[in-house]
Design goal:
The structure holds three protein chains of three kinds. By secondary structure, chain A is an alpha/beta fold. Helices cover about 35% and strands about 15% of the residues of chain A. Chain A contains 15 helices and eleven strands. In chain A, helix 5 (about 155-165) runs parallel beside helix 6 (about 180-185) and helix 9 crosses helix 12 (about 370-390). Chain B has helices at about 60-75, 175-195, 235-255, 300-305, 315-325, 330-335, 340-355, 360-380, 395-405, 410-425, 425-435, 440-455, 455-465, 470-480, 490-500; strands at about 10-20, 60, 80, 80-85, 85-90, 100, 110-120, 125-140, 145, 150-155, 165-170, 205-215, 225-230, 260-265, 270-275, 285-290, 295. Chain B is an alpha+beta fold. Classes of the chains: A alpha/beta, B alpha+beta, C alpha+beta.
Chain lengths: ~525, ~500, ~90
């Protein structure tokens, strides 16, 4: 198989057996990025020189030692929300357009420690606020399966890069669907960890109480490998749990005998696309064939998840984005006459509309006289949501449903719809609010229905776009979702599909074999 | 005191205090940058966390939490099982994150009190209870500096993120004097515990009093209060409160109602001045800090914390009175200076050993006097504390014993102490080196007296004729003969006998 | 529907300058969001204790060990303007 769509374990074998060098592999991906990135705008920054330097180092390590990490010499992309030492980190916002952090996020540090090679920084919705990448100050990314469509978001650049074969893996973040939804829309695998499993340190905060740092890759096995590197307690993030990190990848199951999988009725919502529903039901059938016991369950509060999110998230955002004030770093308004204007003009110029909307919504929800009705009420309902999940996980090992009620809509779907993100992610948000781990794995293709409402209208277009299956686990239950997802991928090949326009004409050969 | 503030006037001040105490930890509240209030190089103690770089997160300092708990306990507060941090949102250049991590509805400590001794009737003193509403932990902001005449400001983040304990009293304080006594007592408690230097001049203790005045006969709290800022010494605190009370009483007397405002103390003008109103009332939008897990204090933790509290000033004062019978003023002066008290107590225990028996009270009285007078004077002149001086408690105790046993005169003792302070060393050795040992030998003294009596016949005659001051003259002459080293008591006694 | 004054007040609190057209735009958009979330009122929450952290972690604290950061110079270099190690900014007073 060609390197551009290979799994990490396959690339690792080739590197280890000296069939290919890390420099060759890195050069190959850099060339692909040069050629294809203009089509999809997945990368905002490409770190060509540094990547080649790091690849040379990796090759030396491979030559020197018998035993190397599975990530040694493997190139990967990073969502531009992670601080990267010496590499511009923008959060896709003008306010950080030229910000170069002097330090690495903990997860980046961990990947560097494995001698993985940073290819560059991927696009996202500004500060991860959105589900389409259309709120990026540097233009939206495009879906490799149909470049007139969105890749989803906010980790749309990461999903598009992996889907187009411009990186075998990309680090991503999720607050309420930002990994699962773009993974689903782009036909790749995405892992949203248990909140507290992976350090948030150095990743620009959106909603501190449920920001989760994960990854998007080509297979569940790759994600399990990545999880082993990224997970664990970090002394710099007090919200990381002190639990042991299992060798997820070593124990992956290929049959699911004895596993109880719940199918929550409330996740098959009105307005879900027919094909999406069909593909998800097909996938559930596959899981049954693998030995899992399928159990109907009910999560009646599901519909309130997005509402809780629409209050809690902007509230925390309004506070988390206060540090972007032009005083100590980043953009500072040139035309300010006094201190008050440094603040108000810098922030007016630096933030896009969605960020402003969220900051203002949150400011309102937290302000005197409204706190109880909005923020406090939302956190009470959140408690009920958590309890509801806890109850259902007494009966089942994991839950399955669609990752997104629709396939990728046309670019422009999110424009001027202040509720787009909240609705697009309604199947992802409840688990995110409860801090649960989840996967999205490709489970087929469906016909797109196009409309400004993100696909809920009736006009049917012919294009076949990816559909994602969502697997939600209990808190700290990463192994269970990796098991279910991996077993599913051993009997299906949806995760191996390549978008036709990005299949290389001349695959990178394994020269020295 | 202004005429209208005499107790008889019926105008009664109502004062509550908000005090910020900088905790003496080695590192900052939420990051490991050094916490050093004496750092003069700008932006030396900074890192990515306390300057609010993107993506950075706070982790709370265990020691800061412990200090806050024990100060709370020392102030007789209730420490609830759970406490949490909250964000207080506002914008200012010295506030890197655009919010301050503080505590809102679950402070570390609440509902305590501190008993202070206030002047009572007939010149005595009375105990008064000042209730403590709460004490909570928070991080400090940086410092904004405004160079004279410049059109720019400078910001130093060394202080940003250092731990503060904010202590809030109920409005139980009735005068500037009481406020001062309360602050001194609080400062001493903080210092005894080792929680901070609590130095108003250095800004490690900051005061914001809320002041209002009741009209004659008024029972309920006034409907307004005035907050005063920019107070950075005990003296300013007293002056500012007194000024503000007089100002408000004047308005009330004329039938007006003071505005609810924030005033700043202007030392040059000797008055408070209204501070420029912000464009809008602050709305801090507090909410629970999601980055910091809650604090849970177990019973064992709280018991251990309580047990670690050293003897506090009030307890020490009571014990000094009980054990040493020192006068109240001496006790207060001693206990005001924590290190001097420690020195004193060590010296006393040395004296106990030297004396080899239960300590005579006069030893304690003498040691206290020498601590408070000559030793304090030397320390103050050198600007050091007793534990830094070359005088060890052991040597100090020896000196006291030499004086008490009349081996050296008090005057010579001062010279010895000065030498000890300068070079260190044993007082008996210094005394000998300087030739200051006191002569108590009756034979030697008698010889000197005989000589003086024979050489000063007129003075002797005058004395015998009833002129008392001649006796003094003769003592002086005898002491001169003894080169100042004669034991005054013995000289006195023998001379009197001789002249009988 | 939020009033213009309410939007202006929010914008002042969060330090974002808005043009008159933007005030109108956000007036509508914020109102849409507030309408959307108003459904939450239907959930019965009396007696429910709010949750703001899902980890259940307690007492995650640092030891009090100071360290000079080696990022000091880089942080100062990122200041828009500095002067003798201070951050320099337009007159605050």
């Amino acid at each position: 198989m060609d390197a551009s769509f290979s799994e990490i374990s396959e690339l690792h074998e080739k590197l280890k057996n000296k069939e290919i060098s890390s420099v060759e592999l890195t050069e190959y991906f850099l060339q692909r990025i040069k050629k294809h990135n203009p089509q999809i705008n997945a990368y905002l920054t490409v770190t060509e020189d540094a990547a080649l330097e790091e690849a040379k180092e990796a090759d030396k390590i491979i030559a020197r030692r018998g035993k190397i990490s599975v990530f040694t010499g493997i190139p990967f992309g990073i969502k531009d929300l992670f601080c990267t030492k010496g590499i511009r980190t923008t959060a896709s916002s003008k306010i950080l357009e030229n910000y170069v952090p002097p330090f690495d996020a903990t997860s980046v540090q961990k990947m560097r420690a494995e001698n993985a090679i940073i290819l560059g920084k991927t696009n996202l919705d500004e500060f991860a606020h959105g589900s389409s990448t259309e709120t990026s100050a540097f233009g939206e990314s495009k879906n490799p399966w149909d470049t007139s469509r969105i890749p989803g978001g906010s980790s749309g650049g990461s999903a598009a890069a992996v889907a187009a074969g411009l990186a075998p893996l990309a680090l991503a973040t999720e607050t309420g669907g930002s990994i699962r939804q773009p993974s689903s829309l782009c036909g790749v695998s995405g892992w949203k960890p248990t909140y507290g499993r992976v350090s948030r340190y150095g990743v620009i905060s959106m909603t501190s109480s449920n920001d989760s740092i994960g990854a998007i890759g080509r297979s569940v096995r790759d994600l399990a490998l990545t999880a082993e590197v990224m997970s664990g307690r970090d002394e710099k993030d007090a919200t990381t749990g002190n639990r042991e990190v299992p060798q997820y990848s070593a124990n992956l199951r290929t049959n699911l005998k004895g596993m109880k999988i719940g199918v929550p009725a409330e996740y098959f919502i009105d307005g879900m696309e027919d094909d999406v529903k069909k593909r998800v039901l097909d996938a559930i059938e596959e899981l049954r064939k693998l030995g899992a016991e399928i159990i109907d369950v009910s999560l009646p509060l599901t519909k309130y998840g997005s509402l809780v999110y629409a209050i809690v998230t902007p509230s925390e955002i309004s506070s988390n984005l206060s540090r972007f004030d032009g005083i100590r770093y980043g953009h500072q308004a040139k035309d300010a006459r006094d201190l008050a204007e440094i603040y108000s003009k810098t922030r007016a110029q630096g933030f896009g509309d969605e960020a402003k909307r969220r900051i203002m919504t949150g400011t309102y929800a937290l302000s005197a006289g409204y706190y109880e009705a909005y923020y406090l009420k939302a956190q009470k309902v959140r408690r009920l949501l958590v309890d509801e999940f806890n109850n259902v996980f007494e009966k089942v090992d994991c839950l399955v449903c669609a990752s997104s009620p629709n396939v990728a809509p046309k670019i422009g779907a999110a424009k001027d719809n202040p509720l787009f993100g909240y609705i697009a992610d309604q199947l992802n948000i409840p688990a995110a609010m409860a801090g649960l781990p989840a996967l999205s794995v490709p489970c087929g293709f469906g016909a797109a229905r196009d409309g400004a409402d993100g696909g809920a209208s009736s006009s049917v277009a012919g294009v076949q776009m990816p559909v994602g299956l969502q697997i939600i686990g209990p808190q700290w239950g990463e192994q269970k979702i990796f098991d279910a997802g991996h077993a599913y991928q051993t009997v299906t090949d949806w995760h191996k599909k390549m978008p036709p326009d990005f299949v290389p004409a001349s695959p990178l050969p394994g020269k020295r074999k | 005191m202004a005429e209208n503030l005499k107790p008889s006037s019926g105008y009664a001040p109502v004062i509550g205090l908000e005090i910020h105490v900088q905790l003496k930890t080695k590192s900052k509240m939420f990051c490991d940058s050094p916490n050093n209030p004496d750092e003069t190089a700008p932006n030396k103690n900074i890192c990515e966390i306390c300057t609010g770089q993107p993506g950075t997160l706070p982790v709370a300092n265990r020691e800061a939490v412990r200090l806050a708990v024990i100060v709370g306990q020392a102030l007789n507060c209730r420490i609830e099982e759970y406490s949490k941090f909250d964000r207080k949102n506002y914008f200012y250049p010295d506030l890197p994150k655009g919010y301050q991590i503080s505590q809102y509805d679950r402070p570390i400590a609440q509902n305590g009190y501190l008993d202070i001794e206030v002047p009572g009737e007939n010149g005595g003193s009375a105990s008064k209870r000042i209730r403590i509403r709460r004490a909570h932990l928070e991080e400090d902001a940086g410092k904004n500096i405004h160079p004279e005449g410049a059109d720019y400001s400078l910001v130093d983040f060394n202080r940003a993120g250092t731990p503060l304990l904010e202590i809030v009293t109920e409005p139980d304080i009735a005068s500037a004097k009481e406020a001062k006594i309360f602050l001194q007592e609080l400062r001493n408690i903080i210092r005894y515990i080792g929680a901070g230097s609590a130095d108003m001049e250095k800004g490690t203790m900051r005061l914001e009093p809320n002041i209002s005045v009741r009209k004659p006969g008024q029972l309920e709290l006034p409907a307004y209060k005035v907050e005063v800022k920019n107070i950075n010494s005990f003296r300013f605190a007293e002056s500012a409160i007194e000024y503000e009370i007089a100002r408000q009483a004047e308005i009330l007397k004329e039938g007006g109602m003071p505005k609810q405002v924030t005033m700043g103390w202007n030392e040059k003008a000797g008055q408070t001045m209204e501070q420029r109103e912000k464009e809008e009332a602050n709305d801090y939008r507090y909410f629970p800090e999601p980055d910091l897990p809650i604090l849970h204090f177990s019973k064992e933790y709280l018991e251990e914390a309580l047990a670690s509290i050293p003897e506090l000033p009030a307890q020490k004062r009571a014990r000094f009175k009980r054990e040493y019978g020192l006068p109240d003023a001496d006790i207060r002066n001693l206990t005001e200076w924590k290190e001097l008290t420690e020195f004193f107590e060590e010296a006393i225990s040395e004296l106990d050993e030297l004396a080899g028996k239960a300590l005579p009270l006069k030893f304690a009285k003498m040691a206290a006097n020498w601590c408070l007078q000559d030793f304090s004077a030397l320390l103050n002149a050198a600007k050091i504390n007793p534990l830094e001086s070359k005088v060890t408690p052991h040597n100090f105790a020896e000196l006291i014993k030499l004086i008490e046993q009349s081996k050296i005169s008090a005057t010579a003792g001062k010279q010895v102490l000065a030498k000890m302070f300068e070079l260190g060393g044993e007082p008996s050795r210094i005394m000998e080196d300087l030739g200051l040992a006191q002569v108590s030998d009756a034979a030697v003294i008698e010889q000197a007296i005989n000589k003086v009596v024979s050489e000063n016949a007129k003075a002797v005659a005058d004395y015998k004729a009833g002129l008392q001051k001649s006796f003094g003259f003769l003592v002086g002459m005898a002491m001169k003969e003894l080169k100042g080293k004669g034991n005054p008591q013995v000289v006195n006694d023998l001379l009197k006998k001789k002249l009988e | 529907m939020l009033t213009r004054d309410e939007v202006k007040k929010i914008a002042r609190l969060c330090r974002i300058e808005l043009s008159p057209a933007e005030i109108e735009k956000f007036q509508k958009e914020l109102s849409v969001i507030l309408d959307y979330v108003s459904e939450l009122k239907k959930v019965e929450t009396s007696g429910v204790v709010e949750i703001s952290q899902v980890t259940g972690l307690e007492n995650v604290l640092r030891e009090d060990a100071p360290r000079y950061s080696d990022l000091r110079q880089a942080i100062i270099a990122n200041f828009p303007e500095s002067r003798e190690g201070f951050l320099k900014i337009r007159n605050i007073l």
